[in-house]
Write a structure and sequence with these properties.
The protein is of the alpha+beta class. It contains three helices and eleven strands. It folds into two domains: 61 residues; 147 residues, PH-domain like (Roll).
Length: 266
C-alpha cells in the first residue's frame, strides 16, 4: 500500500477506525437529538488528515532518497564497467589471485542467536506439620528452564568487502569471512539491501544489510562477485551492465511517474 511499512499501515487503520467509530456514534446520537459527539468527530477527522499528510510527505521524501541513491549506484557501476574495480583508499589483505570488486561501508551484520531462556515457575506444594517445628512439603514440583528460539540479531556494524573469492565483513568487534567456493545459499532482499549468506563451514546463516545507500547494496555487490568467481572479469562486466540497465529502467520509470503527477496537477 503506497510503499508503507506494516506499522504505518496499522496506525492508518487505527486512525480510520477512530474516525469511522466517532462518526457512527455522532450520527446515531444526532438521530436522537444528541449532538454532543460532534467535536469528537472533528478531532478524530483532524487526526486522520494530519497522519495521512505525514504519510504522504514522508513517502514522497523516501522516494526522493531512493531515486538519489539509485543515481549514485549507477555512477559507481559506470566506473566499474570500465574494469576499474580496485580502490586504493583502504587496506585489505588480499589472497593470491584475489581481485577486490567492491566495498560497502556501514554494513550491519546480523546472526541468529537466542536471547536467553525462559523459566516456568515451580510449586512448593502444601506445607504440613509433622511434629514440633518440623514440617513437610507435599505435592510440590520444580520449575523448568528452556532456551528461547533463535532470532536474527544485529551483531556489529562495519565494512563489507566483496572479491572474486570471498565476502569479508570487518566490524569493530567481529570479523566474518564467507568463501564463495563454500556457498550453500546466497539470497538478496528487495533492491539487494539485505543479503543472507550460508556457507558450508558455518552452522548458521548470516545477513548483511545496508545503512549507507550511497554505496552499492550488499546484494548487488555480491552478485558481481559471484559472477566474477564463476566466469572471470568478462562475466562480471556482463553482470554490471545488466544491473546498471535495471537501475536505469527503475530511474526512468520513477521519472515518468513524477512527470505524470506533475502534468495532472497542472
Amino acid at each position: 500500500m503506497m510503499g508503507l511499512s506494516k506499522r504505518q499501515i496499522n496506525w492508518l487503520i487505527v486512525t480510520v477506525s477512530l474516525f469511522t467509530g466517532s462518526l457512527w456514534v455522532w450520527l446515531d446520537g444526532r438521530s436522537k437529538g444528541d449532538n454532543s459527539a460532534y467535536m469528537v468527530v472533528v478531532y478524530s477527522f483532524a487526526i486522520l488528515v494530519a497522519y495521512s499528510t505525514f504519510l504522504f510527505l514522508s513517502n514522497r521524501g523516501k522516494n526522493r532518497d531512493v531515486l538519489e541513491s539509485l543515481h549514485k549506484q549507477a555512477a559507481i557501476l559506470e566506473v566499474m564497467e570500465s574494469g576499474d574495480f580496485e580502490e586504493d583508499d583502504y587496506v585489505f589483505s588480499a589472497r593470491k589471485g584475489e581481485v577486490v570488486i567492491a566495498r560497502v561501508n556501514e554494513t550491519i551484520l546480523n546472526e541468529f542467536r537466542s536471547n536467553g531462556s525462559t523459566s516456568s515457575g515451580g510449586f512448593g506444594g502444601v506445607s504440613l506439620p509433622i511434629f514440633g517445628n518440623v514440617r513437610a512439603n507435599v505435592g510440590g514440583y520444580s520449575g523448568r528452564s528452556r532456551r528461547n528460539p533463535e532470532e536474527s540479531t544485529p551483531i556489529d556494524v562495519g565494512t563489507s568487502t566483496y572479491t572474486n573469492q570471498r565476502i569479508v565483513f570487518a566490524g569493530e568487534n567481529v570479523v566474518r569471512e564467507f568463501d564463495l567456493d563454500k556457498l550453500v545459499n546466497l539470497e538478496a532482499g528487495d533492491n539487494g539491501i539485505t543479503l543472507t549468506i550460508a556457507v558450508s563451514n558455518r552452522d548458521k546463516a548470516s545477513m548483511l544489510s545496508s545503512v549507507n545507500f550511497d554505496d552499492l547494496t550488499p546484494g548487488i555487490a555480491a552478485s558481481i562477485a559471484v559472477a566474477y568467481q564463476e566466469g572471470g572479469q568478462a562475466l562480471a562486466l556482463e553482470k554490471i551492465r545488466e544491473t546498471r540497465k535495471q537501475i536505469a529502467d527503475a530511474i526512468a520509470l520513477q521519472d515518468a511517474k513524477s512527470s505524470k503527477k506533475a502534468s495532472i496537477r497542472r
